[in-house]
Write a structure and sequence with these properties.
Blueprint lengths: L23 E4 H4 L17 H11 L3 E5 H4 L6 H18 L5 E3 L18 H20 L4 E5 L4 E2 L7 H22 L4 E5 L8 E2 L4 H8 L8 E3 L3 H6 L4 H10 L7 E2 L18 H11 L12 E3 L9 H27 L1 H7 L7 H6 L4 H9 L4 H6 L4 H12 L5
Parallel strand pairs: 1-2, 1-10, 2-3, 3-4, 4-6, 6-8, 9-10
Antiparallel strand pairs: 5-7
Helix pairs in contact: 2-4, 5-6, 9-10, 10-11, 11-16, 12-16
Length: 404
C-alpha cells in the first residue's frame, strides 16, 4: 500500500498528498499512454497493466479503470484471458487498488470504422454487442460498479450515409439490450454515457451531456443509466463544464466523471487536470464537493488524461501526482472561498424574507395572489450594482493564495 514514500521523491508530504481516501482513479490507458499521436510513434515504453497498478498505488490513487483491450489483447484465447485476469486481480489485491469503472473499446478495431452500435452493417452491430457483453462480464468480475459508454466512432463525416434518427434508434436499442443483459445476469451495475462533439468522427451523435440526459429519459430502464461528463469534451464544444455537471447532478444522473484539462478550439488534449482554465477547474471542484449548498458528488474522481509527449517514465508519475494534488489544493481553496465573509456578504445580499418563500414554494393560488400584489420598484432594482466584479476578484485572489 501507498505510504507516501514515493511521490517521485520530490514532493514533501503535506495535506495535499493524495491517499486512497480521496477516491482518485486513473485508466490503464491514461498513465499507460506511450506518447503516440497521429504525427509520430511512441516515445515511451509500453507499460504492463500490473506495473501500472503498482505505480498508481505508490502515488496514492484509489483505483484503476480499463477498457477490455487495455488488459486483454484483442483476439486472446480463453486460456490467455483467464491467465491475464488472474494476474491482474492478484496485482490489485497486492496493491490495495479497486476497479470502480470499466468500459469497452468500440473504436480501435477496423470493424468499427463506421461506428459500432449505430453502424449500417448488422454484423458490426451484433459484434459490438457481443464484445460489450464479454467486457461487462470482465468489469463485474473485477468489481466495477459503473460501466461507461463512449461512442467514439458513433458518428459521421457524411450524413448522407444514414439517417441520424435511425442512428439514435440503434443506439437506444443497444443500450436497452445491454440493460436487459445486466438485469438478466443479476449484475449490480449502472451505465454512464459519455458525450463528445467530434473526433475521431467529424460529428459524433449525442454530442453533449445535455443530449445524453434527454436520451436517457427515452430508455427502457432510465434509472440504470446516467452520464460521465468529461472536461475536455464539453470544452471542445465551447460549453461550460460546470453547467454540464450541475445539470447532471440536479437530475441525479452524475454516475461518473472524467477530469482533465482542455483549451477551447483545440483537438481533444486530455491535459493534466487544472493545467488549463484554472477558474473552471476551481468551480468544478467547488461544485463536486458541495460548496454551493448542493449534495456533494461521492463517486470516483477519475482523471482521463495523459502526460505530455515530452515526458519519460518519471514524468508520467509526476503527471499523475499533479492531477491529484491540484484537485486537493483547489478543494482547500474552495473551502476558504466559501468561508470568506466578504464572499458570503455578496452571495447573501439578495435574500428577501417575504418573496423567497413565495418563489421557492411552488404554485398555489395564495402565492400567485401574493406575487401579483407585490410592489417592486423596477427602476430601483435595475440600478442596483450586484458586486460581481468584486466577487470574481475575490475568487481570483483565493486562487492566487493571497486570501484564506
Amino acid at each position: 500500500m501507498h505510504d507516501g514514500s514515493l511521490l517521485l521523491e520530490v514532493h514533501t508530504l503535506d495535506s495535499f498528498t493524495p491517499t486512497p481516501a480521496d477516491r482518485f482513479t486513473f485508466g490503464l490507458w491514461t498513465v499507460g499512454n506511450p506518447g503516440r499521436d497521429p504525427f509520430g510513434p511512441s516515445v515511451r515504453a509500453t507499460q504492463s497493466p500490473n506495473r501500472i497498478v503498482a505505480k498508481l498505488a505508490e502515488c496514492g490513487a484509489y483505483g484503476v479503470n480499463l477498457h477490455d483491450e487495455d488488459l486483454i489483447p484483442f483476439g486472446s484465447s480463453a486460456q490467455e484471458r483467464d491467465r491475464i485476469v488472474g494476474e491482474f486481480k492478484a496485482a490489485l489485491e497486492d496493491n490495495g487498488l479497486k476497479v470502480p469503472m470499466a468500459t469497452t473499446n468500440l473504436f480501435s478495431q477496423p470493424i468499427f470504422k463506421d461506428g459500432a452500435f449505430t453502424s449500417n452493417d448488422p454484423r458490426v452491430r451484433a459484434f459490438a454487442l457481443q464484445k460489450t457483453m464479454r467486457a461487462i462480464d470482465l468489469g463485474v468480475e473485477l468489481g466495477a460498479g459503473i460501466y461507461v459508454f463512449w461512442g467514439g466512432r458513433e458518428g459521421t463525416e457524411s450524413d448522407a450515409c444514414r439517417s441520424p434518427i435511425e442512428a439514435t434508434k440503434r443506439f437506444r436499442g443497444a443500450i436497452d439490450f445491454l440493460c436487459g443483459y445486466v438485469r438478466d445476469q443479476g449484475y449490480d451495475l449502472r451505465f454512464a454515457l459519455e458525450a463528445k462533439p467530434n473526433e475521431p468522427r467529424g460529428d459524433i451523435y449525442l454530442a453533449t451531456t445535455g443530449h445524453m440526459l434527454h436520451f436517457i429519459s427515452t430508455l427502457d430502464e432510465p434509472e440504470r443509466v446516467g452520464v460521465n461528463p468529461e472536461v475536455a469534451h464539453e470544452t471542445m464544444a465551447g460549453l461550460s463544464f460546470v453547467h454540464s455537471i450541475a445539470q447532471a447532478m440536479e437530475a441525479e444522473k452524475l454516475f461518473h466523471i472524467d477530469l482533465n484539462g482542455q483549451r477551447i478550439g483545440r483537438f481533444d488534449q486530455d491535459l493534466r487536470f487544472g493545467s488549463e482554465d484554472l477558474k473552471q477547474a476551481f468551480l468544478t471542484v467547488r461544485l463536486l464537493e458541495g460548496g454551493v449548498g448542493n449534495a456533494p458528488y461521492e463517486g470516483p474522481l477519475h482523471f482521463d488524461a495523459h502526460a505530455y509527449r515530452t515526458e519519460d517514465d518519471d514524468g508520467v508519475w509526476e503527471f499523475a501526482v499533479g492531477c491529484m494534488r491540484t484537485y486537493k489544493i483547489l478543494k482547500s481553496r474552495a473551502v476558504a472561498f466559501d468561508a470568506d465573509p466578504d464572499v458570503q456578504e455578496i452571495i447573501q445580499a439578495r435574500r428577501d424574507a417575504a418573496l423567497d418563500p413565495l418563489l421557492d414554494g411552488g404554485y398555489s393560488s395564495e402565492a400567485a395572489a401574493a406575487i401579483s400584489a407585490a410592489t417592486i420598484d423596477v427602476t430601483a432594482v435595475a440600478q442596483e450594482g450586484l458586486g460581481y466584479e468584486r466577487l470574481d476578484q475575490l475568487l481570483v485572489e483565493h486562487l492566487m493564495g493571497v486570501r484564506g
